[in-house]
Amino acid sequence: MNNTLLTPIKSSEIRPAIAKLQTQLVHWRRKLHQYPELGFKEVLTADFIAEKLNDWGIEYQTSIAKTGIVATIKSHHQGKVLAIRADMDALPIQEENEVSYCSKHDGLMHACGHDGHTAIALGIAYYLAHNRDKFQGIVKIIFQPAEEGPGGAKPIIEAGVLQNPEVDAIIGLHLWNNLPLGTIGVREGALMAAVECFKCEILGKGGHGAIPNQTIDSIVVGSHIVNALQTIVSRNISPIDSAVVTVGTFHSGTALNVIADTAKISGTVRYFNPTLEKYIGERIEAIISGICQSHGAKYKLDYWQLYPPVINHPRITQLVKSVALEIVETPLGVVPECQTMGGEDMSFFLQEIPGCYFFLGSANAQKGLDYPHHHPRFDFDETALSLGVEIFARCVEKFTNF
Ligand code: NI
Q1: pLDDT at residue 8 in the model
Q2: Cα Rg for the chain, rounded, in angstroms?
Q3: If you count Cβ atoms within 10 Å of the first and of the last residue's Cβ in the chain, which end, N or C, has fewer?
Q4: Are residues 94 and 130 in the same domain?
């Protein structure tokens, strides 16, 4: 992984214009950071965005999928329609950073960088609104609520944000503390995993701990299930594919001399390959069903998909990659090995239209800005904000003729 900071390799009017925005970007980001709001409750956040869009004479719609906003910026020239997506929501985490812009909402924190995403989206809105002669076509900026769950992407798509005018492609970024500032994680195909979840209740027959022969021990049945689930990844999935089956909870029993009547197990499933969509869930049910049957137990199983995998389109990925190569010092600054088994509801947009989601390196270990996402001390190097705007600006500039 390359640790060097950015230096431009191509002179462009874009960089100096956006460099002037850096102070504002930091100001907006810190303001948003102080007032974090959970998914579908981003009311102050939406008001803040709307106020800026108003000031800049940008056409927009509010209250889409509850708290979402879509801004439409038309250039002075004919061209295609590109959407830029930013998420707005925060997390139920008590901030432990001691900074002047610390969260003022008790128990809530922008611990994933979505305050930065919103600031970057405002930055590109400002830039485009003031440079309508410098690009072609139309740019739609989608401020999406509730990425952290239950997921705002699906409802905002259903509300029609990809129509009127019809969007040709979509791009979006995540500030990424797993990558150092000055690197950009972009890859064709799967970037982030599908997220599926399960909850299972094993229905045995309780009894005296000393007389097991009169019972169906739900803990023993559950233990067999937890062990057997490990064979899905190791023995059912092709070793070329990546997948995870994690049992996250196992609750059962009330006393050391009582055989438990029921046991509850829950977990999460991750994979990149979309053809595995039904398969892992089916394997989980087959294992649970078979083990329960062999022990005389019954079961109830809930299995559902939260998000499909984030799959980047080859052509739009090429666009982002070409821009990334212009921005970072060497090709080594563009990191293709940036896949994660984390999930993202950007995937729903990418199922609808071609697009590319990418990671913008934001960690700076020297400044102590390298805590992981969702950590109470998460923070990032704000230099990444103007880089984000610059990447979007250059993508917009190239998109129509790419
Ligand atoms: Ni996030």
Answers
A1: 36
A2: 24
A3: N
A4: yes
